[in-house]
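Explain this protein:
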Amino acid sequence: MKKHIIDFKIVENRRLHDIYSLLILTPTSGQQLPPIKPGQFVQVAIDNSKTTFLRRPISINFVDYEANQLWLLVRKAGDGTSHLINMKPEESLNIILPLGNGFSIPADKNTRVLLAGGGVGIAPMLYLGQVLKEQGFSPEFLIGARSAKDILQLDILQKIGTVHISTEDGSLGEKGLVTTNTILSQDIDLIYCCGPAPMMKAIANVAKNINAQCEVSLENMMACGVGACLCCVENTVKGNVCVCTEGPVFNINQLTW
């Protein structure tokens, strides 16, 4: 897909949590958003910061073509993301998009799909769920966090499909890790997953045990987003590949997990 470098202005910075913000953006020039697939990501320039000269990779949370808006769910993790979650409406961001390869969409509308996200790993699942729903699927979500206050975008997800929840303290949904939720003992045809590596590997093992297909979105460290710097290399059954160009989405059969 063609890549674009676009200046966006912030329409809204919606603080969802102490360390999470939802940035709602629209192209400054008014140009229409390019075609974007669920699971793709962007590279965001962090201006006016002495410690961040590299762009930051961020999953695409949602695309609203009617409003011409791009949503980015940002977790505070360092100087770059700290700068982003404190930005104000009307401030601008320079973004390269869309990058990478996204999730596959099954041909059979009767495929039972489960979209699993841990923490900020829920970010790419919102847009994926909406696209699946528009194409005739009945998406189910599995989300996990430490406690009820750490569950993100629940109200929006519930408008798209059924939501299964795990919290470590039992304050919402089932008590325990997302990887032990009882939905994973049911007949699932395809699991999409994004989150911490241990969680994704555990979900991948569950998928193998129940004979479900599984696609994961890797969160390797990235600098360039176009396969030049080689810092996001992942070992696969075909050798080392750049996650930013060959992924970030991989079928687990491609990985050496």
